[in-house]
Amino acid sequence: MESNKKKFEGNALNYQPIKRKLPQLPDQTYLKDRVEDQISWHRKESEKNSKKYNLLKNIDTMVAAAVPIALSTHTAFGGIGGEYEWEVLLKILTAAAGVWLTISSGFFEVEGFEHKSKDYKRLFKKLETEKFKYLTRTEPYDEDDAYPRLVMNVENQLHLDVMNFFKTSDQQNMESNEEEEPENPTTTS
Length: 189
What we know:
Blueprint: H1 27-76, H2 85-111, H3 113-135, H4 146-180
Helix pairs in contact: 1-2, 1-3, 3-4
């Protein structure tokens, strides 16, 4: 019997890992080159999408507020007669405001700036939490296999983020295909 063989202890997927031929990536390098890089990128993307959302929303608010002013000014100075150039201008501005609001609502729906901003922020906050738990050796990073656990947790979070992106894209594509095809198509013989 082999009583000298060390028994497996702890929670790990592999209790007899293969020997490495290459040196292991140091945890400081992984934290700097992978985790910090991902945190930085997701933070920038969150801020960028938040700024786009806020800019479009503010423009929408101003345009929507200008429509009643233009309509009441038009009504107060002569109604629908169209005798003056400014009445034509007010009609054009009101129509343009309606077009803008329609287009911007499409941007909000298609681009999903607010949703993207929240998703990016959620992920970079999760990555920061994992990083600080690791650096402070807070559970689950308080055992010998802390570094592999960190890598697994970070990579799983990043993988889930990518899968959610494709899932969302696939759902949007399916929804657009459903809109193109009628629900109960009639067949002709």
